[in-house]
Specification:
single chain, 119 residues, mainly alpha, Arc Repressor Mutant, subunit A, 3-stranded antiparallel beta sheet, 6 helices, 3 strands, 12% strand
């Protein structure tokens, strides 16, 4: 990811509704969730949701797939990973032990696969 890509991704998340949509999509990984269900859960009009999903998709943080009459949306975890790596790639000035707390906190937010990061 480059500066333009990171600005696009962060800009897409810098709005309350889009941030809520992205967080909902992350919670529904890997199955994804239909657009109508997103609108229902977040109480967003369908046309408004469509605009927000378009911005998230153009940022590379969301992907969609048609399933029968529904469009299933998923968080693009690879795009999210690239964004996170870009943000922390210069972390700690070559002292990785200083980043261990941050990395452990990120790992612990996925309770299904707890891990401990050590150097």
């Amino acid at each position: 990811m480059d500066n333009d890509g990171i600005i696009l991704a962060l800009g897409a998340l810098a709005q309350t509704t889009r941030l809520d949509v992205f967080r909902l999509l992350v919670r529904h990984e890997p199955a994804g969730i239909a657009a109508g269900e997103i609108a229902r859960q977040l109480e967003i009009p369908h046309n408004t949701l469509s605009a927000h999903l378009g911005i998230l998709a153009r940022s590379g943080l969301v992907q969609s797939q048609r399933k029968s009459r529904s469009i299933i949306y998923r968080a693009n975890l690879e795009g999210f990973r690239a964004m996170m790596l870009f943000l922390v790639s210069d972390c700690c000035g070559g002292n990785p032990d200083q980043c261990a707390t941050l990395i452990n906190e990120l790992i612990s937010c996925c309770p299904a696969k707890p891990a401990v990061f050590q150097y």
